[in-house]
Design brief:
alpha/beta, Rossmann fold, 7-stranded mixed beta sheet, about 350 residues, about 25% helix, 6-stranded parallel beta sheet
Length: about 350
């Protein structure tokens, strides 16, 4: 297969910093589009993978799955896009297309396994992992590419490709809307999007935070009420009141304290990914017929639905723009929670290096 050599930023080992390297991209095949990457969001998953914290990283590793750019070439049989279109690529660049979940538009749950935007076996280039958006360009099958609404800022739209769909999908699946009281736990990259989206869906949104300093922020993002989760009296006031809770916390925390806030038949969906198991008491679930669930990103059709919803409601992420050579510092700040609320790389800073 013919390839193009492009500039990227990645790492050769878990303990190494990210630095400039060159990678191969396939030349577009019949159904491919080639995208000039303009912006790439920085997800906590990027950090986990670069540092092999999930113990599955293949090196060299080029992270990045919140990609926005312009199409610069298309394959001969492409029908959904044309040169010049502003498009997005999220966490999925391929899947088997044949299993029951792919056929249902749930490519994220593909039985043989979806092809991730990075750190998956590349279907086209043998013995090579897929490489993500910390790069000049990317080539993706048109069926896994998304239209970006014209009215949204492209840079602030990039995080929607992961943080947006990771929160939209469970809110949509559990029918969040008018008349529903919805809790959002954790006000970070995921949580700030959950507040905005749940509010736009018409729900009454209650934000939970361990930090008094985030009260005004949560209100600005759209929360109707804010609760200091360390205050037992404040928490007790919501006992048995909530229809749904979206938990976006990746640190260890007491999940039973939040399950207690659900009404009968209420559900809590975890989208944060704590390193260690969270103990769940049987009697946190049994008396109220409550559900404790998880959710992972979303399929391609649902991701497009989310982008269109965000376009309609003028929703984008709160971002801090960085240059590519600031990525190692950004990772350290990410570990400290020192970002409001998503780093986005201006990829012109790589092209100009």
């Amino acid at each position: 297969m013919e390839v193009n050599n492009v500039k990227a930023y990645g790492t050769e080992a878990a303990e190494a910093s990210l630095d400039q390297l060159n990678i191969n991209r396939r030349k577009p095949t019949a159904h491919d589009v080639e995208i000039d990457i303009l912006y790439c969001g920085v997800c906590h998953s990027d950090l986990h993978t670069a540092r092999n914290e999930w113990h599955n990283t293949v090196y060299p590793c080029v992270p990045g799955h919140e990609i926005v750019g312009k199409i610069i070439s298309v394959g001969d049989h492409v029908t959904k896009f044309k040169v010049g279109d502003m498009v997005g690529v999220g966490c999925i660049v391929d899947s088997c297309r044949e299993c029951e979940y792919c056929k249902e538009g749930l490519e994220q749950y593909c039985e043989p396994g979806m092809t991730g935007t990075y750190n998956s076996p590349d279907k086209y280039l043998q013995d090579t992992p897929t490489f993500g958006g910390y790069s000049e360009s990317v080539v993706v099958d048109e069926n896994y590419v998304l239209h970006i609404p014209d009215n949204l800022d492209p840079a602030a739209t990039a995080p929607l490709l992961c943080a947006g769909i990771t929160t939209y999908s469970p809110l949509h699946h559990w029918n969040v809307g008018p008349g529903k009281k919805v809790g959002v736990v954790g006000i970070g990259g995921l949580g700030h999007m959950a507040i905005k989206i749940a509010k736009a869906m018409g729900a009454h949104v209650i934000a939970f935070t361990t930090s008094q300093s985030k009260f005004d922020e949560a209100k600005r993002l759209g929360a109707d009420e804010v609760v200091l989760s360390k205050d037992e009296e404040q928490m007790a006031a919501y006992r048995g009141k909530l229809h749904f809770i979206l938990d976006a916390v990746s640190a260890e925390h007491d999940i039973n304290a939040y399950l207690a806030l659900l009404r009968v038949d209420g559900s809590l969906a975890l989208v944060g990914a704590p390193e260690h198991p969270l103990p769940v008491a049987a009697f946190s679930l049994i008396p109220g017929r409550k559900s404790f669930a998880g959710s992972m990103i979303g399929g391609i059709a649902e991701t497009q639905e989310m982008l269109d919803f965000c376009g309609k409601h003028n929703i984008a992420a709160d971002i801090e723009m960085i240059n590519i050579d600031q990525i190692n510092d950004a990772y350290e700040r990410l570990l400290k929670g020192d970002v409001k609320y998503r780093f986005v790389i201006d990829m012109a800073s790589l092209k100009n290096k």
